[in-house]
Amino acid sequence: ANSKIQIAIDGPASAGKSTVAKLVAKHFNFIYCDTGAMYRVLTLKALKANVDFADEDALMTLLADTQIGFEPGEPVQKVFLDGQEVTNDIRQPEVTNNVSTVAALGRVREELTNRQREIASKGGIVMDGRDIGTTVLPNAEVKIFLIASVDERARRRFADNEAKGIHTPLDVLKQEIETRDYKDSHRKIAPLTQAKDAVKVDTTPMSIEQVVDEIIEIASKKIK
Ligand code: CDP
Ligand code: CDP
Fold first, then answer.
1. Is residue 96 lining ligand 2, measured as CB closer than 6 Å?
2. pTM surpassing 0.90?
3. What is the whole-number distance in angstroms between the Cα of residue 87 and the centre of ligand 2?
C-alpha cells in the first residue's frame, strides 16, 4: 500500500515521453522530472562556455557549478540554467545534435543520476528519460517503455517545429532522430534499453489522451 509511487517512462526521441509524463504527474499530483532537459542544460552551458564535449574534466567542473531548475509551465514545463530561463534554448538544433555526446560520459551521468534520485526522493514522481527504469529508479513501481515508428516520431517533431516557426525538412528530422537513437542505444553506460519489467506502449496510432489514460490505468493498480 503506497500512494506515492515512482513512475519511470523511457523510450527513444520524440515518442511523447515529456508530453505524457507531465500529464500523468498532473493526474496523480506527483512531481514531474524531465531528465533529458538536465542533459540538455549542461550541453547548452558547455556550448556557451566553449567547452569541448570530449573534455570530461572540464564538463565536470562546469556541472559542479551548474544549477538546474524546473517550474510548472504550459504547454511545457519551464527549465532554468543558473536561474535564467532556457526552456526554448535547450531545444535548439545545436543542443539536440550534441547532447548524446555529453550524455555518453560516465561521470556526467553519475552526477546527474544522483541529482535525479534526490528529486525522486521528495515524493510521488513521474520521471522520463532513457535509463530511468534500468538505472536511475530500478525499483520504480511502474515502468513504461514508450515507442512509436520513426516516421511518426519525425512527423511529431516536424509539427512541433512548424508551430514554433522552425522549418526543418522532415527527412532531416528523421535522420537526426535515428542518429541520436543509435548513439543513445549503443553507449557503454546506461544505454537506452527497455527494462525487463517495463510495459511497452506503442503510441504510433494513439492520441496523447489514449496514452495518458493507459499509463494512469497501469499506475492506478499500484496505488492504494
Ligand atoms: O525530448 P527528446 O526525445 O528530444 O530528448 P530528451 O529527452 O530531451 O533527451 C535528450 C538527450 O539526453 C537524449 O538523446 C540522450 O542523449 C540524453 N538523455 C540520457 O542520456 N538519459 C536520460 N535519462 C535522458 C536523456
Ligand atoms: O519527450 P519526447 O521526446 O519523447 O517527446 P515530446 O517532447 O513529448 O514530443 C512528442 C510530440 O508528439 C508532442 O508534440 C506531442 O504533442 C506529440 N504526440 C504525443 O506526444 N503522443 C501522441 N500519442 C501523439 C502525439
1. no
2. yes
3. 16
